Amino acid sequence: MRLFVALDIPQDIRGRMASFQASLKNLAPDVRWVSPESFHVTLKFIGELPAEKVESLNRALGSVQALGFELSFREVGFFPTPKAARVFWLGVHAPSALVDLARAVDGVIAQFGVAREEDPFRPHITLARSGSGRPQRQSGDAPNQRFRRIQERLQSTPPPEFGTMSATEFFLYESRLSPRGAQYTKLERFALKQDSPNNE
Description:
Blueprint lengths: L1 E6 L3 H12 L9 E2 L7 E8 L5 H9 L6 E11 L7 E7 L2 H15 L13 E6 L18 H8 L5 E7 L1 E8 L6 E9 L9
Antiparallel strand pairs: 1-3, 1-8, 2-6, 4-5, 4-7, 5-6, 8-9
């Protein structure tokens, strides 16, 4: 089973992201645009794991102790640089609790033989990609014009804002590849703790 762990995004925010994305598609017809159904805040991509391990994985993820938090979606940018862009992304702004959650999930999943993340956690929503989707610089990166018209449009408009959500849970997803693109199924839900003002 091809698995990953992520935060889901409310439908109203996802809709605003999709509308923004659709308004720019004709400016970069040669890149691969991500389906709005694929918009998630990924905490950890697991990859292939045998189905018989999913129950144990659910128990392990259920042991994660993390507080809920607010996160907002605003601004856009390009990885690794605007001049050598391979990824067009939308910004995710959150407190350190998001990084703490991703680190906790990473540690739990490492028990199942999945390599820990070596690069810093950089939360974002990928809108489009051309080439590798990894944000870090790679050999062979060179100046290109694939996103030039989008960059010109963005220079003349205010930075976009898409809304704020409360993260109260995260999910284990299965990703099934098909000719129509990846299909995502929520396998399990895990609640985040709510910080009570009465706690001392």
